[in-house]
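Pasting as-is:
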Amino acid sequence: MQNLTNAIGTIVSHTPMWVFALLAGLIYLGLSQTKDRQLSLGRVLLMPAVMSIWSVMSLNSSLHSPLALVLWGVSLLLTVGLAWSLLPKTPVSYQAGLYHIKGSWLPLMLILGIFIIKYAVAYTLATQANILENHFFITITSSTYGLLSGIFILRAVRILTGAHHAQINGYSAH
């Protein structure tokens, strides 16, 4: 147990301070998603777009592999397709150009998931230079980024389709 504590201490002590500032900002952003709010179409689409771009940029900058990008895309599409029927609908209503969305802890979990994967990949690359030859590592990393991005995108699609359904039928979608 002492070795694990020492290892974690070493890893954290070699982490640049800006990474902790980024983590704090991401936690704040995720916590803001836990409250009910009103969003424009642009704001509904902004979070999934930014997080998906961040995951692609992370893949491209760390793995340098066309295979990684293909696996990310396949994982994203599979996630959206499979999770459509498994994840609960997002309660939403639409009035005067604004989507009224219930708070959710899901965005915080997804944001932290992407951050943790990026951090773990950066650490692994710094300590094991030959890991880029490991196709299993590339597959798991790419697929996990795609999974998290897919859930972000699915949530936005659920908000938009729920609001459209509510507007047509004249009630709030649940």
